[in-house]
Write a structure and sequence with these properties.
single chain, 404 residues, alpha/beta, Aspartate Aminotransferase, domain 1, Aspartate Aminotransferase, domain 2, 4-stranded antiparallel sheet, 14 helices
Length: 404
Amino acid sequence: MDTNKLRSLCPALQNKTYFNYGGQGPLPTPSLDAITASWRRIQDLGPFTTDIWPYISAEANNTRGRLARLCNVPAHRLALSENVTTGCVLPLWGLPIDDGDHILISDCEHPGVVAACHELARRRQLQVHTLPVKQCRLGRDDQAHTDHEVLTALEEQLTSKTRIVVLSHLLWNTGQQMPIAAVAAQLQQHPAQPFLLVDAAQSVGQIPVAEAAAAADIYAFTGHKWACGPEGLGGVALSERVLSDGHPTVIGWRSLQDETRAVAEDPDPFHHDSRRFEVATSCVPLMAGLRCSLDLLEQEGSEDKRLGQIRILSEQLWRELKSIPGVSPLLDGPPPAGLVSFQMRSEATGATPAEVVKSLGGQQLWIRDLADPVCLRACTHICTSQNDIAQLTDQIRTLSAMGS
């Protein structure tokens, strides 16, 4: 695979060594051009005229359909969102739950989702229990062992009152992959049949998602990370039972079947499909940008082919880091995807993780630090080069040697 084509289209990659795709990916110039062209088209038509609505409707429908195909769900099950958090929280807070029910949330979830679950629990007198997955630090060659550990832990933690299970597809901190389809099947067999909410922030654009997205009840993702789309646009795949049993939470004109009628005049005002979880005015030009970025990714190869390239690079980085004294990757084996988290002994570097990030940033080499567990994280993408990895590992080796 020629990684230079997409890389050459991203101005942000031309003057730095970048490993923060898990935070935000660079926007290719063609995607930026598509956004600009959409802005111009809207202004040419008039931003609020009878001529604009067919264009806006087509943009939304095309984007919804594209994301639905990616998730292997019908378009009526795909809601557009602004980011992963809104994609998770809006349907979550509309699920049918009773006071005293339980939420089971993994110990590797993002603080935004964790906070939403705890606030929901406070308001509804729910109990929050922990699903331990952080200790599953094997590599991709041991994925079957990881899957078994996760499913065993799930069975041990489920109760008769568990109503919601929250688990990421790719853990944002350790980089391990969770067996989402198998978890969904296990929950369907449980007497309580809990809803499965999946934070897919690290998935779309990096790994195949169709099986997991179709199996989960709520599968929320964003376009601005691994897909290299613009920030401010994502999606959430919803199960049929969420559409039938869930209630809208944050409500606006897009939630309504007929935005011209007052709710008091209509006993059933909301859309019966995924649009009941959409709210109001969003940035339409971003849709053209995201579709363009997805097109560019597809031109680099299939999902499986791209993941294969990402794995080659992440394994190389994992092995290089593992060979450096005082540096320990979190996973025991090569990562299943592109998230490579590692720890450096403070006595080896004389610096905290945040100080290491700052020092590397001074060399225009960008990774990030995480708080739980305390570690550093670098991400390999199909845009990553062998030279990028060499530069990072050389600098890490230098920092480690300085403290020895």
